[in-house]
Amino acid sequence: MATSKLRLGVGLISVGWMGRLHTRSYKAIPERYPELGVQPRLAIAADAVVEAAQEAIGQLGYERATTDYREVLADPDVDVVSICAPNFLHKEFALAAAEAGKPFWIEKPMGRCLAESAEIAQAASDAGLVTTVGFNYRNAPAIAYARDLIARGELGTVTNVRTSFLADYSSDPQGALTWRFERDRAGSGVLGDLLSHGFDLATHLVGDIEEVSAMTSTHITERAKPTSPNASHFSTSAGGEKGPVENEDVALVIATFASGAIGAFESSRVAVGPRAEYVIEVYGTEGSLRWDFQRLNELQVSLRRDAHYGYSTLYMEPGMGEFGRFQPGGGTAMGFDDLKTIEAATFLKSVLSGEQYGPSVLHGLAAARVVDAAERSAHLGERVSVAHSPAARDGV
Questions:
Q1: What are 111-162's pLDDT values in tens digits?
Q2: Which member of 96, 134, 232, 250 has the lowest number of beta carbons within 10 Å of its beta carbon?
């Protein structure tokens, strides 16, 4: 006998690649998480570009579309909101969502700077909202399994952590000068765009980061302005008028954790070779582990108690994190989109229960504090302490 599902109205702000991904994630909920008993209803989408707004209806299946995001927040059919706009619009949209009392799922970095992230977190807290921030890599089953190994003490005392987020999306000097390269619209470069993920993963696995010492550099110092209003950081714009790149291409951060462990964080958006080599390694007195996003469904583990030294590769299978919701057995891979489906489910579970599951705006603020400290350290040429929100690490 069929049972009725609760229909939650979804409002989408910004119909780009990430907006489309949020939409697919909501659509997957009834199949992947039937126990939630919810059927997301694609109520209304907003995008300032008329063609994109129309695509939300024709391609994505939203009931209505608009070019004014305020109509999304005012719509009584909207129960939850996805904010998928560029960084420079996050604060405006998130504060408006909080004022409207709409729980929101926002991509990282939350704000262009620490002050903006703090405003967003405070507004959500004042409104009593549950939220989700797009730290999707922590949803990988291998990361869930790694966190369990560390929590059980299988690695012993953690001594050091290495995180490397290397990408090539801006390695072409002919790449267009989009908003990502402008400080006023993006904030920092790879510190916020890539290493915010690395800082979140390390905190999720090991604990708070207390001090940082950072160096940054910009290797492609100018780029041609885009020739299309829809240009992304993957677009080329050869031969056009050039403008300066205002934030960092490369960053290296040495950190001290509250536990006494030390960490090394490196990132580049101009690397030639790595496509999306996002790696975290955790070393302890009794063992170590390694995970690379490019091998999403694998975890390398070495434990002293084993008869031999060296790494064994664990292939994810049902029973490890959320793997079993997506594949019936080990060896058949999960993908990037699946990580966002887990994120969507965590968000809706929080909304339905009124309890916070998964990374919230407090975790977004925690990452922003480390990014801010790293920026100040690079500017000052000295170690900088990281200020912490008391509830930044609430067990999820």
A1: 999 999 999 999 999 999 999 999 999 999 999 999 999 999 999 999 999 9
A2: 232
| Pair 157, 125 in one domain | no
- The owner of tokens 């989109």 is 337
Domain co-membership, 45 together with 166: no
Number of domain units in the chain: 2
Q: 366: Cβ–Cβ under 8 A, 6 or more apart, which residues? A: 199, 200, 203, 208, 388, 389, 392, 393
The answer on 293 and 159 residing in a single domain is yes
Closest CA to 127 of 153, 155, 102: 102
Per 3-state DSSP, the chain is made up of helix, strand and coil in percentages (nearest 5) of 35, 25, 40
Domain boundary among 117, 136, 155: 136
Instruction: Render pLDDT for 314-334 as a digit per residue (tens, 0 to 9).
Output: 999 999 999 999 999 998 999
Q: Does residue 351 sit within a domain?
A: no
CATH code of residue 95:
3.40.50.720
Question: Does residue 339 form part of some domain?
Answer: no
